[in-house]
Design goal:
With about 130 residues, the protein is mainly β. Helices cover about 5% and strands about 55% of the residues.
Amino acid sequence: MAGAYLVSASAAFGDEASVRVELNKLEAQEGACQAFLVIENQTETPFDALVMDLVMFDPDGVIGRRLAVNIAPLRAKRTSVKVFAVQGLACEQIGRLLVNDVLECRAGEAEIDTCFDLLETASRTSVDMIN
């Protein structure tokens, strides 16, 4: 990417900054489970891309599905809601949700190489969300 540069999360946002990702609700849909995420960008920087590699485990701990979800755009110091569907998986088949990695993290032209370190996870459902 022309003109892009790489910065670390702590250099760009300070040690106290975080992006809190909460699994707020799971809702059954025909042939899918719809997941509602509440994202609190506690940093001073808006994100143009923040793509998480998510892995869903069934209640027995077996991997059921893996997908990439872009939770951006995220405005600075704002809370937002993102909704995505997990096709072919019923909500009761999800026992745990893992943020396995951050595949892309960008603020403007700056690619953030340690964005995973910014993430804090939580859940208001019976399904744990971890990183």
